[in-house]
Write a structure and sequence with these properties.
The complex is a heterodimer of chains A (394) and B (290).
Chain A lengths: L1 H27 L5 E8 L6 H20 L7 E8 L4 H13 L5 E4 L3 H14 L2 E4 L6 H4 L9 E3 L4 H16 L3 E7 L2 H13 L6 E8 L7 H10 L3 E5 L5 H10 L8 E4 L5 H6 L1 H4 L3 E4 L8 H14 L5 H20 L4 H9 L3 E3 L2 E5 L5 E2 L2 E7 L2 E8 L8
Parallel strand pairs in A: 1-2, 1-3, 3-4, 4-5, 6-7, 6-8, 8-9, 9-10
Antiparallel strand pairs in A: 10-14, 11-12, 12-13, 14-15
Chain B lengths: L1 H32 L6 H19 L3 H22 L9 H23 L4 E2 L7 E4 L2 E4 H23 L1 H11 L1 H6 L4 H27 L1 E2 L3 H15 L5 H21 L5 H15 L12
Antiparallel strand pairs in B: 1-4, 2-3
Helix pairs in contact in B: 1-5, 1-6, 1-8, 1-9, 1-10, 2-3, 2-4, 2-8, 2-9, 3-8, 5-6, 5-8, 6-8, 9-10, 9-11, 10-11
The chains are: A alpha/beta (394), B mainly alpha (290).
Chain lengths: 394, 290
């Protein structure tokens, strides 16, 4: 009997302690007068480079905001969580940030598969998860009216990209017949899936469809098939390292300069163009942002980042810098760090980003323009920023 | 239609030549050491890196870079041969598998440690396309076919007429007898290994200009392409390897064109399975080594 009692006592005691922890932690959150911002990104592992750029971008934004007096007197304090680029680690990092560090908001992750795994965790905890760099359309298919009310994304999706590229190719170049040569991954296949969705809109068709394995080095058979198919352009969503090989082999089979590459596979880097100048001429690419983009805000960011970190920023640095500023504006407009109020402010925001105005749709997806470029005379020429409204599945 | 098929066969012969030069080294090593060299692709990678280094850091012309790539790999092969390969002569098969897998990991990671894991750009070679009988090929690919033929004729002559070649054939047939009649088996094993690694390096340097990207992990793919070839060719059979390499090259090319590029890598092992069902010892007899 005594054992029974003490057990019960132990349980009650534990529960009381737990309750106290919970209630005290509710006050503990940001009681130090800061805004605690969690940043989940691959800080180690093969994608650590992206994580480093993301953190630097966000930290630079925090420094700027804090330097200008913070948001309503509160300074931003960035707490980094390492996802190692894997969903499992991404979820534990998110849990740690929410439970132990008591963050107010989270930005993350670079990888779509990690973000998809983080979504339910953020939803359960009622913490705003603002994504700045994942492109898989499913993230916002599932958000807003699609389900998760705490997930937002300030980044164009693969669907956006597919539509914008196709629209430009059809309207400005008059292409209607395409060959597909994309990487055999979720990214490459999804991009083509969405391209197919919009083909009828532009009265276009795909004549041949091939996917290459990462590390593939021989594309000649496929390229000669494409040459004989009558395709006007090759849709390629792929890896940066395969593009120079494809370019050189396009020269070999005699389609360089005749059938351009369109899509997204780092057509615009100096090394790639140098590897096969004739094949890359006329290549069309849609990107979220480019260091060369002509806008005052963008140029100022590039200069400041380069001066601060002694290296030029990449896309990930920019999107995290811009997203931190976007969140700061939402907090400022909400006049509070209350999550519900900030979420409401974010939904109604009109934010002037370096590439254009950002607003969110009912799926919590930012309506964002993408930068379109074409390789002309061996150099990327920016053709402007293009927007496209997403056609969500019903 | 007919033109396309011929063109794909030509493409296949080019790929086949590359596979043949790599695979012949691996099959000779198997013949003498009775071990499948899982680090074989790494010598292909080392040769490419040697040439890339010579061009990138010393601005040397491509022909000199070829020599540097092959010689550097041969030097590494001398070290690996002395410390590892010689010791697996007559050892159980699993010792060979583990030892060569270990060597593969060490070589790959050392290169990544020294040069970084990112893709490098190989800028040498002769990439201008030329038109021959209505087909367009890069000059480099014609070079690959010519070198491939020279290598095979040279090997054939060497194993038939030279003292070293005859010793290699003898060791591949019966190690114990060779040891009894006074042939230095370890010495022969070492030289066969160096020759095999050198040929893999040569193949790497020759293909680098058309494959452009150079990185530490590039050898793995080659090892796994080479495996079905040497099994199909009859382990240890040089001529068989040549024919098997051509079959694989042409089959891959036709599959990539008419079925889809994504199925290309399955061709090797699918063909291997079909061949083994019909001829369990491979297309060519393992008894007729070299």
């Amino acid at each position: 009997m005594t054992i029974e009692l003490s057990r019960r006592g132990f349980c009650i005691g534990t529960a009381l302690i737990g309750l106290q922890t919970v209630s005290s932690s509710a006050f503990a959150r940001s009681e130090d007068g800061t805004v605690k911002l969690g940043l989940v990104a691959p800080m180690s592992g093969p994608n650590a480079r992206y994580g480093a750029f993301s953190l630097r971008g966000a930290q630079m934004a925090a420094k700027e905001i804090n330097g200008a007096g913070g948001i309503g007197g509160r300074k931003i304090n960035i707490l980094a969580g390492d996802s190692q680029g894997t969903p499992v680690e991404g979820v534990s990092a998110t849990r740690r940030l929410i439970d132990q560090d008591q963050v107010d908001f989270i930005i993350g992750d670079v990888s779509s598969s990690v973000t998809l795994a983080m979504q339910p965790v953020a939803e359960d905890a009622g913490v705003l998860l603002l994504n700045a760099a994942s492109s898989n359309p499913k993230i916002t298919y599932k958000a807003g009216v699609g389900g998760f009310k705490w997930t937002y994304r300030n980044y164009p999706t693969d669907e956006n990209r597919a539509l914008i590229v196709l629209q430009y190719a059809a309207e400005k170049k008059g292409f209607t017949k395409y060959a597909v040569l994309s990487v055999d991954s979720d990214y490459g296949r999804a991009a083509i899936e969405f391209t197919k969705k919009y083909l009828p809109r532009f009265k276009s068709q795909i004549l041949t469809e091939d996917y290459y394995k990462e590390g593939e080095v021989d594309f000649r058979s496929v390229l000669s098939k494409i040459r004989d198919s009558g395709a006007q352009a090759i849709i390629m969503y792929g890896n940066a390292d395969s593009t120079p090989i494809v370019g050189r082999q396009m020269m070999e089979v005699g389609i360089a300069g005749k059938i351009p590459l369109i899509g997204n596979a780092e057509f615009n880097t100096e090394k790639t163009i140098k590897a096969a100048p004739k094949a890359l001429e006329g290549a069309i690419e849609a990107a979220a942002w480019l260091p060369a983009y002509e806008s005052e805000k963008s140029k100022a960011f590039v200069d400041k980042f380069t001066a601060e970190y002694r290296e030029a920023p990449n896309n990930h640095a920019y999107v995290h810098w811009e997203t931190t500023h976007l969140l700061a504006k939402a907090i400022d407009q909400a006049q509070s760090i209350d999550r519900e109020k900030v979420r409401a402010a974010l939904s109604k925001i009109h934010y002037a980003s370096a590439v254009g105005e950002v607003t969110f749709d009912d799926h919590n997806q930012a309506r964002l323009p993408m930068i379109l470029l074409e390789i002309e005379n061996g150099k990327p020429a920016i053709k402007g920023a293009y927007s496209a409204e997403i056609d969500y599945p019903k | 239609m007919f033109y396309t098929i011929i063109e794909q066969v030509v493409n296949g012969i080019v790929s086949g030549s590359v596979y043949a030069i790599v695979a012949v080294g691996m099959t000779m090593i198997f013949g003498v050491l009775r071990a499948i060299n899982f680090a074989h692709g790494e010598y292909y990678m080392l040769g490419t890196f040697g040439a890339w280094f010579a061009i990138e850091y010393f601005d040397l012309p491509y022909p000199v870079a070829i020599v540097i790539g092959v010689v550097a790999t041969a030097v590494i092969a001398v070290v690996v041969g002395n410390f590892v390969m010689q010791r697996i002569v007559g050892a159980p098969a699993e010792a060979g598998v583990l030892a060569t897998l270990g060597v593969a990991l060490i070589l790959q990671n050392t290169v990544i440690l020294v040069f970084g894991g990112s893709y490098k750009f190989f800028s040498g070679g002769y990439i201008e396309p030329v038109t021959l009988f209505g087909f367009t090929l890069a000059e480099q690919r014609i070079l690959i076919i010519i070198v491939g033929l020279i290598v095979f004729v040279g090997l054939e002559l060497m194993v038939t007429y030279s003292r070293m070649g005859k010793a290699m054939r003898a060791v591949s047939q019966n190690i114990e007898c060779c040891a009894v009649v006074g042939i230095d088996v370890r010495h022969i094993a070492l030289w066969t290994f160096i020759l095999g690694a050198g040929l893999a390096a040569l193949s790497g340097v020759l293909t680098a200009p058309v494959n452009v990207s150079v990185y530490g992990g590039m050898g793995e793919l080659i090892t796994f392409k080479t495996l079905p070839i040497i099994i199909m060719g009859g382990l240890g059979n040089v001529r068989g390897t040549f024919v098997a390499a051509m079959i694989l090259g042409i089959a891959e090319s036709l599959v990539a064109t008419y079925v889809g590029l994504q199925f290309r890598d399955t061709v090797g092992f699918a063909t291997l399975m079909l061949v083994l069902m019909w001829r369990p010892h491979g297309l060519f007899s393992a008894q007729a080594r070299f």
